[in-house]
């Protein structure tokens, strides 16, 4: 099995509120995107990557690729307004010789090679797979006035992470269907579910959290400092 990883790195980082998109911020002394590319490249099944950059920032992304230790073929393309637009742009740069793609967030630099591999292998077995974690807190449904309505059964809930792995052709079909039906989704699994594709689950680690807010960035700094020390 050989996998082409589509790295979604075209977001604007509204919740981070920094002076530049978070994927270009220095964390642990290097751009966040560099850590993520190297984490993906550490999985032997990943044999190429497509980095989806904010439109107009392709050169910055290319410079980060060049400054990383990644020795795989890497293409850089411009993304779109929504995550699914960016993934679609990335997918269009993946040639038909690639049967399998793994979509991964640039904002998840701590993904483990073993978890990427397990997600890819489950996808090969069942058609598609997503990495995620169980819910570790009690989950409440709340009404618009801020009062608790009920406590949900969390035993069947999954916090979806990336990578999310499937056949190139299935993702293309799911994205095209979403476009035709005006469906918006925050991850690939939701698009695949909508076309009836079963999606298996690999339970991974909370270390693979998505750097979303300034608090997350502080946690990431501490984790990189531990790794270096
Ligand atoms: N149009 C978009 C939106 C998001 N992403 C990517 O998808 C990943 C997960 O998205 P998120 O963390 O929500 O990033 P942003 O969209 O940048 O953040 P925010 O929602 O706070 O603006 C990120 O690596 C981000 O760069 C993307 O490639 N293209
Ligand atoms: C794909 C994702 O990382 C899974 O958790 C997530 O959905 C990305 O976007 P979000 O807007 O932060 O939900």
The largest sheet is: 7 strands, mixed
Record the strand order, biggest sheet: 5-4-1-6-10-7-11
- Strand segment tally: 11
What percent of residues are in strands? Answer: 15-25%
CATH class: Alpha Beta
**Overall morphology:** globular
CATH architecture: Alpha-Beta Complex
EC number: 2.7.7.60
Protein name: 2-C-methyl-D-erythritol 4-phosphate cytidylyltransferase
Enzyme class: transferase
Site (Positions MEP for the nucleophilic attack): 154, 210
Question: Could you describe the 3D structure shown?
Answer:
The chain has 229 residues and is an alpha/beta fold. It has a single domain, classed as Spore Coat Polysaccharide Biosynthesis Protein SpsA, Chain A (Alpha-Beta Complex). The protein has seven helices and eleven strands. The chain has helices at residues 32-41, 58-67, 83-92, 113-126, 168-181, 188-194, 214-228, and strands at residues 3-8, 26-27, 30-31, 46-53, 74-78, 100-105, 128-134, 140-142, 148-151, 158-167, 200-203. It has a seven-stranded mixed beta sheet, sandwiched between helices. The protein has a two-stranded antiparallel ribbon with strand order 2-3. Strand 8 and strand 9 (148-151) form a beta hairpin. Helix 5 packs across helix 6 (188-194). The structure holds cytidine-5'-triphosphate and the ligand C[C@](O)(CO)[C@H](O)COP(=O)(O)O. The ligand C[C@](O)(CO)[C@H](O)COP(=O)(O)O binds at residues 83, 105, 160-162, 186-187, 210. This is 2-C-methyl-D-erythritol 4-phosphate cytidylyltransferase. GO terms for molecular function: 2-C-methyl-D-erythritol 4-phosphate cytidylyltransferase activity. Belongs to the IspD/TarI cytidylyltransferase family. IspD subfamily.
């Amino acid at each position: 099995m050989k996998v082409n990883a589509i790295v979604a790195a075209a977001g604007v980082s509204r919740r981070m509120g920094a002076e530049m998109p978070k994927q270009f911020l220095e964390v642990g002394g290097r751009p966040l995107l560099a850590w993520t590319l190297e984490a993906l490249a550490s999985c032997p099944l990943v044999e190429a990557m497509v980095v989806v950059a904010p439109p107009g920032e392709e050169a910055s992304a290319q410079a980060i690729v060049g400054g990383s230790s990644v020795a795989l073929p890497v293409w850089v393309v411009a993304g779109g307004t929504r995550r699914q637009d960016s993934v679609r742009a990335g997918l269009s740069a993946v040639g038909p010789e690639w049967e399998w793609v793994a979509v991964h967030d640039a904002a998840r630099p701590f993904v483990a090679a073993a978890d990427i591999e397990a997600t890819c292998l489950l996808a090969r077995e069942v058609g598609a797979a997503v990495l995620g974690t169980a819910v570790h807190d009690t989950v409440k449904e709340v009404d618009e006035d801020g009062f608790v309505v009920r406590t949900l059964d969390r035993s069947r809930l999954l916090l979806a992470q990336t990578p999310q792995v499937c056949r190139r052709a299935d993702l293309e079909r799911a994205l095209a269907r979403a476009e035709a039906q005006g469906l918006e989704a925050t991850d690939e699994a939701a698009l695949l579910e909508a076309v009836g594709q079963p999606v298996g689950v690999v339970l991974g680690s909370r270390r693979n959290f998505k750097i979303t807010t300034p608090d997350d960035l502080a946690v990431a700094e501490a984790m990189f400092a531990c790794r270096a020390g």
